[in-house]
Structures are given as C-alpha cells and as structure tokens.
Amino acid sequence: MAHAPQLYQNNFSGSLGNKIKDVMSQVPDLLKILIDHFYCHGLAIIVAVITLWTVHFKFSLSLCIWVTVFIGGSLILLRKAHDFSEAAAEVRSTIVGTIVDILSNMMSVRLFTAQKEEQRTLKVIFDEYVKADQRRDWFFLKINSLQGGSFVIYQGLSLFWLIQGFYQGNILPGDFVLILTINISIVDFLWSLSKDMGIVAELSGNITQGINLVCSPIDIEDKPDAKELVVQNGEIIFSHVHFRYRNAEPLFENKSVTILPGQKVGLVGYSGGGKTTFFNLILRLFEVNAGHILIDGQDIKDITQNSLRANISVIPQDLSLFHRSLMENIRYGHLVATDAEVIEASKKAHAHEFITHLPQGYNSLVGERGVKLSGGQRQRIAIARAILKNAPILLLDEATSQLDSVIERQIQSSLWQLMENKTTIVIAHRLSTLLHMDRILVFDRGKIIENGTHQDLLAKGGLYKTLWDTQIGGFLRVSASSKVKEL
C-alpha cells in the first residue's frame, strides 16, 4: 500500500490480487513439500547407501555418485524450469486481471456490443498461456528423459557388477534381489523427488512474481527522522518546484506560488494543464524533481506521509467506494466516528435522504467500486466523508460536477461551511462555482499564466475570459496545444 500510484495505474487490479493470492496459498504448499517429501526421501537414500555398503563399497559409492549427479543436475535445470514457470504464472495473472477488468466494465461491453472483441482478446491471452505452459511442460519432459536415461545406465552397471561378482563368488543370489530392489526403490524415490522439484519450480515461479511485487522498490518513502506535520495556519508554498512524469516532457519548471492561510483558491485551465498534478504534489503522491513544497514552513519531504494526508481532506471528482456498507464508507473519513457523527455528516452533504430510502439504509452495500450508486450519490458520499474528516486543508476536484443544479445549490452552503477557516484549493471546469474564490489560478501547460479574482481576470481579457465566454455560450473547447496528459 506504500507504493506509488504508478504501480496501481500500470497493472490490472485482478493481476495484483492474483499474485498476492499465490504467495498466500502456495507458500504453505512449498514448505510442506520441502519438509515432508525431501526430508523423508533423503533419509531413505542414506539408509540405502549404508545397506549397499554391507554388500560391497562400489555399489554404495556408485549409488552416491548417481544420486549426486541426478539431484545436482535436477537442481541446475530447476533454475531454467523456474523461469518457465514464472513466465507462465505471469501470463496467468494477466488472464485473471483481464477477466476482472472485463467484468468491471461489463456495462460498457454490452453498450458497445463488444462481446466478440473481448472474446478475441481473451483467446489471444489464453493462447499465450497455453504456449507458456507447453514450453514449461516440454522442458520437464526433457529433464525426465535425461533422468530416466541416467537410471538405465546406473542400473545396467549395477547388474554388470552383480553378474561379475556372482561368477567370481563374491555375490550371493540374495544380493541380486537386495541391490536391484533397493535400486528400484531409490529410483522411485528420486522419480517422486523429481516430480516434487517440478512442483517446487512451479510454486516458486508463482510465489516469486508475488514476492517481486511486494518487494518492489517504493518510490516515495519517509525519511528515518521524519516528523509529524503540525498545521496551525495552513499556508502552502511551492518554492522553485520542478516536476516531470516519467518518460514525459517537464510539466512544472521553477514553479513558485504561495497560498495564504485560510485562502480559497480556484484552479482552472485546459485539460492537461497541471491542475490535478498540483493536487497530487501537495499530497506527495509524486515526488518533485527539484524545489520544495512547504506547509506552514515544513517541507513535506521531511514529514511522514500519513500525517500529511491526515491533515488534508480530498473530495475527488469520481469516487470509488469499497464494497461495504454506506456507514463504513462514510466513516472512512474518520474511523473512530460514532454513528451519530456519520449521520450528521451525511445530512450536511444531503446524502441522508437518499440513504434512508434504501432498503437497508446505512447498512446497504454499495457494490464493487460503488456501482449500485449513481455518480451524484457517490459524490455526496465523498463530501460527507470530507465533512466527517474535517481536516485543516481541503482539496476539491470537481466536487459537484455530477450533481444536478438543485442538489448542487443545497450542497454549496454545506461546502462553504466546510471551507470556513480552512485553506481550500478547488479544481473546477464549471467556472460559476469559483465566483467567490479569493484567488483563481489559470494553468496552461504547467504554467500559471493568470492570477486574480474572478472580476480581475475578466478585466484582463486573457485565457480566463476566453474560458468564461465560451462556457457561458454553452461550449468549452479543449486546447489542441495541450500535450501533457494529466493523471
């Protein structure tokens, strides 16, 4: 959970879950094989070596040499088998991730009549999995052939020595039965051991991909001496900040801006201009390449990430909920809140009315990612969660974009109460929601090109006025020059 957002953005959630599941379920199986089977078979081989020594040392010595070659060669080949198994496990995780992705977007699949296309996609991935499985199985077949051939050679040599010793009078008829029986038993042990090694290779391949995920480097870590953030006023300062996304052009270059304590600041501009990135950098979801971000004089690099985010409430544009009850989802804003406090926050967010009309009220399950609720209902849950958290810094990303005009007007008063005595930053494409902001920052390709109140910016006649005029006309254009996709 401490990994950067890129890990979750670049991987199927189903694939990540499958890899973690493999670690949980297959580590016990691996330990069972290593302890039970390997230990028992190893003990049987030791007893066999001692027994053969009583007949003649060369039988015992040849058995030791063959077992060493058999097991040593198997272990060497096991590394390659591990790679084949890991590749097959990776493809299998991709299959699981793709299936979960399709199921999560089943409505889109139906609306766009894309069932056959999704079937073709799954067929391609399944074909890759079959090929990966076949490569692994053919490799094991080659290993088994080599192992079987080595046993034929060893058993033939033992039989030659037995016949030779019999004619020389050194070997008794009972020794034939003893040695050949032991050899057959040992090969059974080793053959079983070889199969176990194949299972070990498969299990270790599955486990390795999960371990690699869990142990992958964490991009953003707290310093060893990181302190807790203490917010007394809520001043936010960007000081000569440089930032670029991986493998992308620089977005912020030497950006400096100060947001005063308790100030209400709106962010506007074309999509891709850097507004959401501005939010993410304050939350330290991404690390700046150079410069500093200060909150009440404390560099966010020097404080714990948990204390930073504990002092910031965020209302996102599109909230994903847990498949839990509404009570649990709202209480996520303040985990020790009482039921009464949750209900009070819901009333302020105008969510209480629709919640009480549900068959199970606050105990109603919302479905995966909140699919049982409308976009506007999910947004009201997000607002209730922020009201309950009541942090000194508030970030709103199109917090009312999915609400109808009547509900929006009702909630605006609650939002203004929530903003009182808080430093608030608001992203809005609906410019009418920013009329009463203390300041409005106009972004264009990572630069703040205008800064002022609504009236000041209209008087300047710049980009803000252009956006205002086109929006009043009912249509807001998207800048063709915007090249940086905002995450």
N- to C-terminal separation? 19 Å
Number of helices: 15
Give the structural class. alpha/beta
- Shape annotation: elongated
Strand neighbour order, sheet with most strands = 6-7-8-3-9-10
Beta-strand content: 5-15%
Helix-strand pattern: HHHHHHEEEHEEHEHHHHEHEEEHH
Helix content: 55-70%
Radius of gyration: 33 Å
Written overview of the protein:
This protein has 487 residues and is of the alpha/beta class. The chain is 57% helix and 12% strand. It contains 15 helices and 10 strands. The chain has helices at 5-9, 13-55, 57-104, 106-111, 115-168, 173-214, 275-282, 305-310, 326-331, 339-348, 352-356, 375-389, 405-419, 454-460, 463-472, and strands at residues 236-244, 250-259, 264-269, 290-295, 298-299, 312-315, 393-397, 423-427, 439-444, 447-452. It has a 6-stranded mixed beta sheet, sandwiched between helices. The chain has a 4-stranded antiparallel beta sheet with strand order 2-1-4-5, with no helix packed on it. Helix 3 runs antiparallel to helix 5. The longest helix is centred in the N-terminal third of the chain and has 54 residues, at 115-168. The chain is elongated and about 115 Å long. Residues 474-487 have low confidence and may be disordered.
